[in-house]
Structure formats: structure tokens, C-alpha cells
Amino acid sequence: MLCDHFCQAEGMYLQHLSLRYFRNYVEQQVKFQAPKIILVGENAQGKSNLLEAVEWLAGLSSHRTGRDRDLIQTNQPQALIQAEMVRASGSLELGAILRQSGRRSLLVNGELVARSLDFLGHLNAVQFSSLDLDLVRGGPTERRAWLDRVLTQLEPIYAHLWQTYHQILRQRNALLKQILNQATDASQLPLWNQQLATAGVRLMRRRHRLIERLGPLAQAWQEKISDHRENLALNYGANVTAATQAPEDLWQAFMEKIQARTVTEQIQGTTLVGPHRDDVELLINDSPARQYGSQGQQRTLVLALKLAELELIEAVIGESPLLLLDDVLAELDLHRQNQLLGTIENRFQTIITTTHLGAFDPAWLSSAQVMTVKAGLVSPTPP
Ligand SMILES: Nc1ncnc2c1ncn2[C@@H]1O[C@H](COP(=O)(O)OP(=O)(O)OP(=O)(O)O)[C@@H](O)[C@H]1O
């Protein structure tokens, strides 16, 4: 069923997206007219790029690249993303100009906003792609980036706290390099230790809280999808641990650990203590999912994590976020596909990319808006 205005989706609803010199799009207007949207096309035509633009508006970052430059069309100075959406609070217009220099301009309802913080939180989205298997198979970096992306959406201030921590970390690392090269002595170090601990504790407490809340939700999904055969546990593998999560206890533990490692840090010229070294432990039936999980268990786990993320954002924001499914349906077996599609129903406006429509249930397909993506052009799919 197509509709011109706000449709049955109960949460945020994206109505219009406009892209200019974004990845392989020169100038593209896309009108979204249904809670379920399917983008069909061959590989490398621009399907993921479109989802990436929406993901970027949600978190001011992309899971595929850390640099705005990669998002700008080759040989163009800047890219433009604009979105019109409807939320419970009313209509909203978001705009962003990305520049080769890395400098960005962000607009909310046509007004330039000075800080990322004022832009974040207007559009919420959960994206799910085959790259998410790296949450299980990859290293701690992937898992930390995931936590950070979710936290940024739940609590936009987190983006600011993250930046502050990493700025202090960079400066402390520069100092350690200078000490290593005997360009300076260690007298400045205690001051940086304190700053790092203060900023670090803010991240650690939030990551801890997030895992505490995501854990039971993900566990319930893992159990449901595996027909009660699998048990999932999410443990925060914090680099600094303390007896309690009280800020003063964490701060104390941080300071003790960093002081204990000071000689090694000065020999290695880098910071060895802090949340930039955190991890998340994923256990299936008490064994690490990375080493012992079968392919099927790992896929279930990632799906369970994503569904938990979706539920948590919905609960915290009080509105359902957009769901961006990048070519994942084909990778799931029928049972897992049904779990996912059953959860979506009409609760979340969902944009799905696929290389072929064959995998979709005909009833599901008939209620979706289907568009074709070819060489950076989006067009309605002829019936
Ligand atoms: N900065 C850029 N400038 C110009 N073109 C780009 C840029 N970044 C990516 N592309 C092009 O975008 C295309 C990739 O599009 P995308 O990743 O959206 O693929 P897709 O349609 O989702 O296909 P798949 O099914 O393989 O994921 C490639 O042709 C690539 O060359």
C-alpha cells in the first residue's frame, strides 16, 4: 500500500531524501511512500550508498568509512544530503554539506546548527548489513564502534564525550612519544592521566549501562530464534574494572591502573589504559561465539543484537527508529527471515536492499514500495 503522507508506520517516517554528489549519486530525489521500501538492483549500483546517507544523518558517521571524504563523489568538492521526515513531534527537515576538508555544515529545519550535538537525535536508524557479522568475527574495534554508534543515538551527548576522550588520548599519546624520543620529561603526565580518567569514566559508565540493557533483550531474541537451544550472554570487557560502577571507584581504578602501566607506556609511546581498549564478550551457551559459534549461531547472534538494538532505541526514544536492511535477507534462512520480517510488520519504516525480489514473500512484496537502483539512479520499478 502506498501513501502520500504519513502512513501506518508508528514511528519516524522518512518522506523524502535528496542526494547531491554523494558517492555515486549526482543529483537524486527519492520519495518514500510506504512503511516498507525495497531497493532492488545489481551489485555496485548505489543501493548501499543510499542507506549509508540515511545512516549518516542518524549518527553523523558511516559504518563503512570514518572519513567524510569517501562519501563525496570523486573530484567533487562537496556532497549534500537532505531529508524530510515526520516524527510524533511534527515534520522535520535535515540537511548536511560534507566537504573534502572534513568541515561539515549541518542544518535542522533550514537553520545551521553549530554543534553535532544539536543535529543528532533527530533521525534514529538501526542498520543491519552483512558487515555486522564482524561484530562476532572481527576484533574489539568493531564491537566498540557498534557500542559507540548505539550510544550516540540513545544519548547524543555521548558523541561529545567520545570526542573529548579521544582528543585527550591523542594529546597524551603525543606526549608519550615525546617522552620516548627524550624530547620532554614526564612531569606533564599526571595531569593528562587525570583528564583521561575523568573523560574515560564517562564513556565506561555509559557503555556499561548500555550492555546491561541490551543483554537481556538480545538474550531473549537468541532464545526465541534458536527455539530455546541457545543462550546468549553479553559481558562488558572493560579495560578498567572497579568494585562498583560509581564514578569515584572507576576513577580510582583507572588512576591505579594507569600508574601501574606508566613505565610500559613510556617505553611503547602509547596509552595502554582506558576505554579505547574495551571489548564486549559474546558468549553462546557459555563459550565465546567468535571461536566456538557455528556460522548459523553467529548469524542468529548478530540478528539478536540488532533486534535488541532496535527495541532499546524504540524504548528509550519512545518512537520507532528507521530500519535499514542492507542485503541481509538473502543471507538468513527462512526461519530467521520470518523472525525479522515478523518483528518489523508495520512497526518500523524499513528500507531494504536486495539484488533480486524472488526471496520476498508475495504478500509482503505487494505492500512494499519497490524502486530500482541502477548506476546511481533510483527509479520506480515497473509492475
Ligand atoms: N566517493 C565515490 N564517488 C563516486 N562513486 C563512488 C564513491 N563511492 C562509491 N562509489 C561507487 O558506488 C558504487 C557502489 O555502490 P553501493 O556500495 O551502493 O553498491 P550496491 O548497489 O549496494 O551493491 P552491492 O549489492 O554490491 O552492495 C560503486 O560503483 C562505487 O564505485
From TrEMBL:
Binding residues annotated for ATP, in chain numbering: G41, E42, N43, A44, Q45, G46, K47, S48
CDD domains in the record: ABC_RecF
Recorded superkingdom: Bacteria
Example GO BP: DNA synthesis involved in DNA repair
Localization annotation: Cytoplasm
Keyword terms of this UniProt record: ATP-binding, Cytoplasm, DNA damage, DNA repair, DNA replication, DNA-binding, Nucleotide-binding, SOS response
Segments crossing the lipid bilayer: none
Any one GO molecular-function label of the UniProt entry: ATP binding
Similarity field: Belongs to the RecF family.
Function of the molecule: The RecF protein is involved in DNA metabolism; it is required for DNA replication and normal SOS inducibility. RecF binds preferentially to single-stranded, linear DNA. It also seems to bind ATP.
Protein name: DNA replication and repair protein RecF
Lineage per the UniProt record: Bacteria, Bacillati, Cyanobacteriota, Cyanophyceae, Acaryochloridales
